[in-house]
């Protein structure tokens, strides 16, 4: 993942004005025997995203990657699109804010804010007009993935999910290539985790064509749309699928593999992607 | 649950213009052996909520209780507050809309729409200014709940979660009293399930004081706030807790019980609520 502390990616100047925040905090709970037990809880903090000093949204986040989250949110909602118009990202946890400065005019931003129409995925939330734009232009490659490689990937993913293992209450998402995890993000909101990875890929101008998107969360319409926008042709989840997630995957040509855990999975769309190379038991 | 088909609750005239929609659909998936398996997927459909013909938000929902969902959303976001100003609720699945008519003026609505500030819970989504209003006025009673009754409740809940058992990919929420489930709602968005129950309780002017709120979802800030607004002093979840969910529960005086499943649970706040009446094993 990008460590954005006072560094320059492409022509973007990042300024992170204060240090890292904790991702979990220790607490004491009482178990069913009436006994005190030491536990951790996942942090949850507001992050208000400003675009050219105009407040756009406040996201509730774990706080691990605020710069990429803010950028990915703005990118996915269609507020920003050209990397060379991006000037800087300033995160300040003292005031829970991420300020993004671009060369976009404020008229453009107001026009996009006024288009809010569709909401989404995890259930609720206004998603701005730009979210659904450009879907028709998406052309995804037809990938191939060996079942043995998929199993190896699922095994490798077990080494991630640190916050989940420690405190629960977060979802994890990863960008994978064959059985390797290139980036993994956890967040209290599963859409934040997706947006963070989208922000990273956009900043680094990575192609999604040879990638696999893994998530612990459910494959709803919004999840499928965001993965398609990243140009990734394979979506892999530990959880289930909704009907609209499935319909969009069919329309956009995304291989949809759900209930993937251990040596089990269900392909809901794109069965030709998987090469069944695990020998049948005698 | 309220069945709102052409009935009158208080002074509210409901008109539901077309029939029930399916909650799951049959699909064929391919399993890890390369074999076709018959599965169901949970439905997910857009529902655009109009208040006095002004579009407010589009929710992605399972579609089981669109009237209560639309009302609960508007109530929780502070757009509507007085039941006697409510005139009618018209759901039309042909155009995926829920139109709510009230005696509120359009100026009031525009003022509330302009206050959008805070977003939430499941991660994302604009939550309007009214959401956080009135929290300081909430006074919750100090409840008492026997451990044996809690176990009986958890056992009774197993009989619900129909869509989840059939298709996965949904969250369930229930309004409970002692070990009885008074209402249970599933939705593809966990916040939709909460809003639906909030809408029902508001319509029926039920007190939350003697109720327990159960959810399969995580206890984030937004979940705790919504339960507090319903006047319910006990929040019970099969999942985990975030730090802000815990802090709000402490501030608002909500008993927070997480990881509740079978005979296990963890009390994160309000341990005096539980009477440990299960005899210790010899």
Secondary-structure map:
The structure is a homodimer of 282-residue chains.
Chain A: E1 8-9, E2 12-16, E3 24-31, E4 36-42, E5 45-51, E6 54-61, H1 66-76, E7 86-92, E8 97-102, H2 106-114, E9 118-119, E10 126-127, E11 145-146, H3 147-157, H4 162-167, E12 171-177, E13 180-187, H5 190-203, E14 212-215, H6 221-229, E15 234-237, H7 243-252, E16 255-261, E17 264-269, E18 274-275
Parallel strand pairs in A: 2-7, 5-8, 11-18, 14-15, 15-16
Antiparallel strand pairs in A: 1-2, 3-4, 5-6, 7-8, 9-10, 12-13, 12-14, 16-17
Helix pairs in contact in A: 1-5, 5-6, 6-7
Tell me about this structure.
The structure is a homodimer of 282-residue chains. Chain A contains seven helices and 18 strands. By secondary structure, chain A is α/β, with parallel strands linked by helices. In chain A, the strands form five sheets. In chain A, strands 1-2-7-8-5-6 form a six-stranded mixed sheet, with helices on one face. In chain A, helix 1 packs across helix 5 and helix 5 (190-203) runs parallel beside helix 6 (221-229). The first copy, chain A, is globular and about 60 Å long. Mean pLDDT of chain A is 86; it is low at 1-7 and 117-126. At the A-B interface, strand 3, strand 4, strand 6, strand 9 and strand 10 of A face strand 3, strand 4, strand 6, strand 9 and strand 10 of B. Strand 17 (264-269) of chain A pairs antiparallel with strand 3 (24-31) of chain B.
């Amino acid at each position: 993942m990008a460590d954005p502390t006072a560094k320059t990616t492409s022509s973007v100047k990042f300024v992170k004005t204060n240090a890292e925040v904790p991702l979990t905090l220790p607490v004491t709970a009482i178990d069913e025997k009436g006994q005190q037990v030491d536990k951790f809880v996942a942090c949850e903090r507001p992050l208000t995203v400003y675009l050219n000093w105009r407040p756009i949204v406040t996201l509730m986040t774990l706080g691990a990657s605020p710069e990429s989250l803010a950028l990915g949110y703005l990118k996915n909602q269609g507020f920003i699109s050209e990397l060379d118009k991006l000037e800087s990202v300033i995160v300040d946890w003292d005031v829970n804010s991420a300020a993004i400065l671009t060369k976009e005019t404020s008229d453009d931003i107001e026009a996009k804010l006024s288009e809010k129409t569709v909401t989404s995925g995890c259930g609720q939330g206004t998603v701005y007009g730009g979210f659904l734009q450009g879907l028709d232009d998406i052309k995804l490659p037809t990938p191939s993935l060996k079942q043995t490689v998929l199993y190896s990937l699922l095994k490798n993913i077990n080494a991630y999910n640190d916050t989940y293992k420690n405190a629960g209450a977060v979802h994890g998402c990863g960008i994978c290539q064959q059985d390797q995890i290139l980036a993994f993000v956890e967040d209290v909101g599963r859409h934040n985790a997706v947006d963070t990875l989208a922000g990273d890929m956009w900043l680094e101008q990575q192609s999604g064509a040879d990638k696999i998107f893994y998530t612990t969360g459910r494959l709803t319409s919004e999840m499928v749309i965001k993965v398609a926008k990243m140009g990734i042709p394979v979506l892999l989840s530990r959880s289930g699928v909704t009907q609209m997630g499935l319909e969009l995957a069919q329309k956009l040509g995304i291989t949809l593999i759900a209930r993937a855990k251990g040596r089990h999975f269900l392909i809901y769309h794109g069965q030709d992607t998987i090469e069944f190379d695990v020998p049948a038991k005698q």
